[in-house]
Amino acid sequence: MARVHALRLLTAALLTKHVPLLPLPSGYGFTRILYQTTSSSCRTGNDLRWSLGVSKRSISAVIPARGFTTTGTNEELEECIHEEEDAIKQSQVGVDQVGGDHRSIAKQVIQILQQLKKADDLQTKLAPFAGRISMRDATVIIKLMPDKRLVFSLFMWMKQQPQYNPNIFFLLAVVRNTVASGKWQKLEIVVDEVFAQNLVLDQKLFAMIIKRASDVGKVNLSIKWFQKMKDSGLQPDLIAYNTMIHAYTKAGMHSLAFSTFQDMQDHDVNPDVSTFGHLLNVCRRDGDVAKAKYVFKEMRQAGVQPNHVVYSIFLDIYGKKGEMEAAAATFKEMQEAGIMPDAKAYNSLIHGFAKAGMIDQATLAFHDLRRSGCEPDHVLFWTLLHMYAKARRWDEALAVKQLMQRSGAAFNTFCYDTLITAFFGAQQLEDAISMFKEMQRSSVPVEPSTYITMLKVYVQAGQHVECERLFDLMMRKGFKQHVGAYEGLLELYHKTHRIAHATQLYQRMQRNECVPTPSMFGMLLDLYTHAGMFPASELILQHMCSLGHTPDLATYTALVAAYMRYGHYSRASEICGDMKEAGLSVDTSLKAQIEAAGELTTPMI
């Protein structure tokens, strides 16, 4: 009814020869219509021409956000009235609602395109339709064709037809679909055709291209099309500037984001809250509090009111820098401004308190969040869990775990690993084992790092059988090159002096092409030297040195002591020389024992 009412007002205005500026109801793609009763050409600025065709008087109208700027005379406008009106209607219906031959042709072409396997076959398949597909048909086909990758091929085929006379709707459909498909070289060909038809892309369409390029990580293309917009004679508007600033921010080109903001100010384009939000994101990534305060000052001077997003970014910046007094003041300012903090604002504040070790303040903020009706997200739960576990406040940590499970938040691998690692660090081994068994019963995947932690837990808890079972489980799961698994089991064999098992484990590592760590070499050397297995010790030492690992002081000292214990004074002396070359000091008691044995010919300094 609203649209009928608007049309009646339009007709009345025409009959009375008035020139009204008539606002139409929203929802029809119109913002204003300008009617002229004198004969003149008109420029419809960034929009399309449209007419109801109810009068022979000159009529020009504005349809915003279509994507082109064009000019036209009264006669040209009259000629395109019915075609453009049909195209507008056609954009709102399916192919089955188009009458006559148009429906038949469109249907047949779409069916052919559905079966087309290669774009190169399009020329042959559409040959029977040469000269029969109108611009309206082509526009409908583009809108309804399933494989949008064929749009450019259809466009090139249409250009070869003798009746080719593209209208705005056809070119707009081709441009939008080419942008969406990310075919940048083809897009330039299409845009050249737009210019050849005396049309120019508007700011919104340029902004769409810039954003699409930024979304796929091609910031250089964003820069190129931003410059193309300027070269075409269009001054970037707010949307275009914001899109470009966001592209620079996303690509980490932070200085260019600020220089674009300066260019925006130089051209008297008023920034909005999104502009400042993008700039504050730059400050957040740089951790630059001073620059963030400058942006906030500029925001105030521009008369732009901060929203909850801006405040949340500020809270995050302060929290990450540990400036919690400033964060608390910003949070209070947000509340006094009548902006209810959302989950993101609370998250930023609580993350900051947790990072600063202000556990009680984080707890109070969390309770305030729950009273406000905001739902904590999984990241916030993880932060609290880690905070309480690190502080060894087990009751609170387990309470967070229960709350997560009741609220349906995922208690995932990270959560279990956090608690297991914390329990192990506090030497609460039984709690770590209990949590690990719960993790295994759940459907949560277990990471190699968790298995390795549990190997150490079982070793320290004296549960040697469980340790070996867990190692075998890791091998069956394919973790054959995780050195931590071998190191955990070797720790068990070193602790229990099981030399044969340690040797088998070392050989298994070599078969699996897993390189031992220096600490593992140290454990093997300790086992072999204490057992007087010096040939094996020498092989381990050679392997260690071949990998570029230099034995530390403790390892050298243990070797010297072992050789001395078994009366191999000459080899002990050689090792002392190796220690000296490595810049390590020889234990004075060992040196005295070697000298007393009479094996040293040169005094050791």
UniProtKB/TrEMBL annotation:
Record-linked InterPro entries: PPR_rpt, TPR-like_helical_dom_sf
A Pfam family recorded for this sequence: PPR_2
Source taxon at top rank: Eukaryota
Family: Belongs to the PPR family. P subfamily.
Repeat as UniProt keyword: yes
Organism: Sphagnum jensenii
SUPFAM superfamilies: TPR-like (SSF48452)
Keyword Repeat: yes
Protein name: Pentatricopeptide repeat-containing protein
Signal peptide as annotated in the record: 1-21
PPR repeat extents: 202-236, 237-271, 272-306, 307-341, 342-376, 377-411, 412-446, 447-481, 552-586
Alphabetical list of PANTHER family matching this protein: OS03G0856100 PROTEIN, PENTACOTRIPEPTIDE-REPEAT REGION OF PRORP DOMAIN-CONTAINING PROTEIN
Keywords: Repeat, Signal
